[in-house]
Protein backbone atom coordinates (compact mmCIF):
# COMPACT_ATOMS: atom_id res chain seq x y z
CA UNK A 1 0.00 0.00 0.00
CA UNK A 2 1.33 3.43 -0.96
CA UNK A 3 2.76 5.74 1.69
CA UNK A 4 2.35 8.92 -0.39
CA UNK A 5 1.02 11.94 1.50
CA UNK A 6 -1.15 14.63 -0.09
CA UNK A 7 0.62 17.95 0.46
CA UNK A 8 -1.31 21.20 0.78
CA UNK A 9 -0.54 24.78 1.76
CA UNK A 10 -1.83 23.92 5.23
CA UNK A 11 0.47 20.94 5.90
CA UNK A 12 3.48 21.67 3.67
CA UNK A 13 5.67 23.37 6.29
CA UNK A 14 5.01 20.69 8.90
CA UNK A 15 5.49 17.73 6.57
CA UNK A 16 8.23 19.04 4.27
CA UNK A 17 10.10 22.06 5.64
CA UNK A 18 10.17 20.82 9.25
CA UNK A 19 10.61 17.13 8.42
CA UNK A 20 13.46 15.34 10.17
CA UNK A 21 13.61 13.00 7.17
CA UNK A 22 14.42 13.89 3.55
CA UNK A 23 11.30 14.50 1.46
CA UNK A 24 10.41 13.75 -2.16
CA UNK A 25 7.82 16.30 -3.34
CA UNK A 26 6.02 15.47 -6.58
CA UNK A 27 4.24 18.43 -8.22
CA UNK A 28 1.69 16.72 -10.48
CA UNK A 29 -1.65 17.08 -12.27
CA UNK A 30 -4.38 14.55 -13.07
CA UNK A 31 -4.36 15.60 -16.75
CA UNK A 32 -0.57 15.14 -17.10
CA UNK A 33 0.47 12.02 -19.02
CA UNK A 34 4.08 11.96 -17.76
CA UNK A 35 2.77 12.42 -14.20
CA UNK A 36 0.65 9.29 -14.59
CA UNK A 37 3.67 7.47 -16.02
CA UNK A 38 5.85 8.15 -12.97
CA UNK A 39 3.05 7.60 -10.45
CA UNK A 40 3.80 3.86 -9.98
CA UNK A 41 7.47 4.71 -9.38
CA UNK A 42 6.56 7.38 -6.80
CA UNK A 43 4.32 4.83 -5.05
CA UNK A 44 7.09 2.20 -5.13
CA UNK A 45 9.64 4.61 -3.66
CA UNK A 46 7.23 5.59 -0.87
CA UNK A 47 7.07 1.95 0.19
CA UNK A 48 10.73 1.06 -0.40
CA UNK A 49 12.03 3.99 1.67
CA UNK A 50 9.26 4.09 4.28
CA UNK A 51 10.72 5.38 7.55
CA UNK A 52 13.73 6.91 5.75
CA UNK A 53 12.03 9.25 3.28
CA UNK A 54 8.74 11.15 3.25
CA UNK A 55 7.00 11.06 -0.14
CA UNK A 56 4.35 13.64 -0.91
CA UNK A 57 2.36 14.95 -3.84
CA UNK A 58 1.22 18.48 -4.60
CA UNK A 59 -1.73 18.79 -6.98
CA UNK A 60 -0.77 21.83 -9.06
CA UNK A 61 -4.39 22.61 -9.94
CA UNK A 62 -5.38 22.82 -6.27
CA UNK A 63 -2.23 24.29 -4.66
CA UNK A 64 -1.37 27.37 -6.74
CA UNK A 65 0.50 29.15 -3.94
CA UNK A 66 2.91 26.22 -3.54
CA UNK A 67 3.36 26.04 -7.32
CA UNK A 68 4.25 29.74 -7.39
CA UNK A 69 6.52 29.54 -4.35
CA UNK A 70 8.53 26.60 -5.73
CA UNK A 71 8.39 27.55 -9.41
CA UNK A 72 6.90 24.23 -10.49
CA UNK A 73 5.68 25.53 -13.85
CA UNK A 74 6.20 22.20 -15.60
CA UNK A 75 4.67 18.93 -14.45
CA UNK A 76 5.90 16.63 -13.26
CA UNK A 77 8.44 18.52 -11.19
CA UNK A 78 9.96 16.55 -8.35
CA UNK A 79 11.94 18.21 -5.59
CA UNK A 80 14.16 16.37 -3.13
CA UNK A 81 14.20 18.36 0.12
CA UNK A 82 16.49 17.88 3.11
CA UNK A 83 16.62 20.05 6.23
CA UNK A 84 13.92 22.28 4.75
CA UNK A 85 15.84 23.15 1.59
CA UNK A 86 15.57 21.73 -1.96
CA UNK A 87 18.66 19.67 -2.79
CA UNK A 88 17.80 18.36 -6.23
CA UNK A 89 15.05 18.82 -8.80
CA UNK A 90 13.79 16.66 -11.66
CA UNK A 91 11.57 18.15 -14.36
CA UNK A 92 9.77 15.74 -16.66
CA UNK A 93 10.48 12.05 -16.49
CA UNK A 94 13.68 10.61 -15.07
CA UNK A 95 14.82 7.03 -14.78
CA UNK A 96 14.16 4.91 -11.71
CA UNK A 97 17.94 4.66 -11.21
CA UNK A 98 18.26 8.47 -11.10
CA UNK A 99 15.57 8.66 -8.41
CA UNK A 100 17.24 5.94 -6.36
CA UNK A 101 20.67 7.54 -6.70
CA UNK A 102 19.43 10.91 -5.36
CA UNK A 103 17.34 9.33 -2.59
CA UNK A 104 20.14 7.09 -1.36
CA UNK A 105 22.51 10.03 -1.30
CA UNK A 106 19.99 12.08 0.71
CA UNK A 107 19.30 9.36 3.26
CA UNK A 108 22.98 8.52 3.66
CA UNK A 109 23.01 5.10 2.03
CA UNK A 110 25.62 6.29 -0.45
CA UNK A 111 28.94 7.98 0.18
Automatic annotation (TrEMBL):
Taxonomically, the superkingdom here is Bacteria
Keyword Kinase in record: no
> Can you tell me where the transmembrane regions are?
none
Q: Where is this site: Contributes to redox potential value?
A: 33-34
Q: Where is this site: Deprotonates C-terminal active site Cys?
A: 26
Q: Where is the signal peptide?
A: none
Q: Which InterPro entries match?
A: Thioredoxin, Thioredoxin-like_sf, Thioredoxin_CS, Thioredoxin_domain
Q: Which family does it belong to?
A: Belongs to the thioredoxin family.
Protein name from the UniProt record: Thioredoxin
Supply the source organism for this entry: uncultured Sulfurovum sp
